[in-house]
Amino acid sequence: MRRSSVKQSYAWQFTKALYLADLNGWTWFVSMQDHYNLIHRQAEREMLPLCADQGTGVVPWSPLARGRLTRVRDTATARAATDPGGTILYRDGDQAVAERVHEIAGKRGLSPAQVAPARVMRHPVVTSPVVGVTKPAQPAEALAAVDVELDEDEAAHLKESFYTSRPGANSRWSGPPPGLRRVLGLGLHRPAVGPAVLAGGRAPAVGAV
Fold first, then answer.
1. Could you give the 3-state DSSP secondary structure of residue 132?
2. Is 191 in contact with 3 (CB distance < 8 Å)?
3. I want to staple 117 with a disulfide (CB 3.0 to 4.6 A). Which of 3, 83, 145, 175 is the partner?
4. pTM
5. Which Pfam families does the UniProt record give (predicted)?
6. Selection from 38, 201, 43 nearest residue 117 by Cα
7. Any idea where the domains of the chain sit in the sequence?
8. Is 97 left (phi over 0), alpha (psi -120 to 50) or beta?
9. Per-residue model confidence as pLDDT tens digits over 3-22
10. Domain 4-207: CATH superfamily, name plus number
């Protein structure tokens, strides 16, 4: 195997995986696909600093928080009504974060779907976010986020909307699935290339997340 990646683990688990790979001369983990957006920012506490230290690129999933960052309050959609994951990962108080995204989008003449990923991509360790699409126009909108440059004041305004009383890292996550736990026993060696080769740039990867 030439490249190896991990999706959604605790920082201590990823640390063990990195240690085992280095100890055994296995292929190094070039990317981490973690849950990271303006609402769910626990990765900033441990996972993102770990990835920065180890030269691991981050490919975050759900930069739009399952659409919550793009919808105005009380907007009824089929996904919001049928998506059980949204009630597990997010809560009503998160709308305060979405309102700041809409505020900046309105001032800049942008859409919230451009502003939210732009803030995620502003983190230096993020290589490329994974965005989910349900409508034909959404891929182009996601790609347009690459060209959005938020200034320091805008970035700070979005950052301070994250209330510090939020629970600890991944506390709303039931834990990684068995397949991810088994990754600690997988083996693979550290490539000479950096994590940026994985995505070949900053453009979001489009998927069904």
1. strand
2. yes
3. 145
4. 0.73
5. Aldo_ket_red
6. 38
7. 4-207
8. alpha
9. 788 888 999 999 999 999 99
10. NADP-dependent oxidoreductase domain (3.20.20.100)
Q: Which carries the bigger pLDDT value, residue 74 or residue 178?
A: 74
State how beta strands 4-7 and 57-58 pair: unpaired
184, two tokens: 């600690």
| pLDDT tens readout for residues 31-52 | 999 999 999 998 999 999 999 9
Report in angstroms the alpha-carbon separations of 10 from 20, 83, 130, 178, 180. Answer: 16, 24, 19, 13, 11
Quickly count: other Cβ atoms within 10 Å of residue 10's Cβ: 15
- Tokens coding 105: 């989008």
- Sorted by sequence, the CB contacts under 8 Å of residue 100 that are 6+ apart come out as 157, 158, 161
Q: Are 204 and 117 in contact (CB under 8 A)?
A: yes
How far is Cα 138 from Cα 149, in angstroms, rounded to an integer? 19
